[in-house]
Design goal:
mainly alpha, globular
């Protein structure tokens, strides 16, 4: 990553900004820690729903936001003085190919929750859309970032519920996927990175960052940051293979679907409601799912759109019943 200082008609190239490589490398380490925890949950060593809700969910969003912010930083550093189409096209082609490979691999491995628009898909699309903001004032770019982040709170519609439009991120309910990073709100992080870098560039901050010395202990992070795509593609297969190998010798303790559902349900419910409500609500959901023979299907993550709608209807019914019972003073 290099800083560019415009001088006359040709930009002067300065030293690579190692701090940016280090930040990207640190984000890769954080991502690996999250994926390792996800792998433990997937194989049954951790409770169901651990990484999907609460602190781990926030952790995952911070990691994704950091990567996308750095995409915006890179766009400005590389192309602010003129788009380098050869380098841009080569990098974009690599990202698109990697994204398609991940879609194909996860479609085979986890067909009910495969990655159809994950972070690499977002990076590819954002890299193209971001070019339109390279010549705009920084404050306008930051304002656009805020609007993109806020859009899902105001513009969700059933119009976007068709699978062909899930990549937009404005459907009435998020589709099931192991990594879902749609255009809205995540493109906002890229625009934020662009706006901040435009301000840093005009103030001379980038030149000062490029002049900072690199401590020896940061070199592994910087190396990973310079080869982030390769590290991203390799680390999860290595981690999941390691957990699988461990499971062959020390398999996790099996748990009935009822316990797994109850854990995930309470973790999800606790994000918006109190413990008393969640205990009663999850008991209602468990009873109805078992009564209709749907629990195993839900636990395995299978089912089409009609099945997902049935589950949402059951959730709405249990929510209404739980609210009514608690308003009436009934103890869960």
């Amino acid at each position: 990553m290099t800083a560019e200082q415009p001088t006359g008609t040709a930009p002067a190239r300065t030293k690579r900004i190692v701090a940016i490589d280090m930040l990207r490398g640190a984000a890769l380490v954080a991502m690996a820690s999250y994926h390792f925890t996800w792998d433990l949950e997937f194989f049954g060593y951790a409770h169901a729903g651990l990484t999907a809700f609460g602190p781990w969910k926030i952790y995952a969003r911070c990691i994704a936001s950091t990567f996308l912010f750095l995409v915006g930083v890179s766009l400005v550093l590389a192309h602010a003085d003129g788009i380098r189409w050869n380098g841009f096209g080569k990098r974009l082609g690599m990202i698109v190919a990697a994204a398609l490979a991940i879609t194909a691999a996860t479609r085979l491995a986890t067909p009910d929750s495969f990655i159809f628009f994950g972070i690499l898909h977002q990076i590819a699309l954002a890299s193209v859309l971001g070019l339109a903001f390279l010549r705009l004032p920084a404050l306008l770019t930051l304002a656009a970032a805020a609007l993109v982040v806020a859009a899902p709170h105001y513009l969700r519609s059933e119009f976007f519920d068709h699978p062909a439009l899930w990549w937009v991120g404005l459907s009435s309910a998020d589709p099931r996927s192991n990594d879902y990073v749609p255009l809205f709100p995540w493109f906002g992080a890229v625009l934020a990175g662009m706006g901040v870098t435009q301000l840093a560039r005009s103030s001379g901050l980038l030149t000062r960052l490029a002049a900072l010395p690199q401590p020896g202990w940061t070199r592994p992070l910087a190396f990973a940051g310079r080869h982030s795509l390769a590290v991203y593609l390799v680390h999860q297969p290595v981690l999941i293979a390691g957990v699988w190998l461990f499971a062959q010798f020390m398999p996790p303790q099996s748990r009935p679907p009822q316990e797994g559902f109850a854990d995930a349900c309470r973790a999800s419910c606790a994000e918006t409601r109190d413990g008393a409500f969640c205990t009663r609500y999850c008991g209602c959901m468990l009873g109805r799912l078992q009564g209709e023979g749907l629990l195993e299907k839900l636990y395995k993550g299978s089912g089409d759109g009609a099945f997902q709608q049935t589950v949402r209807d059951l959730a709405a019914t249990c929510t209404a019943e739980t609210d009514g019972a608690m308003e009436g003073g009934q103890i869960p």
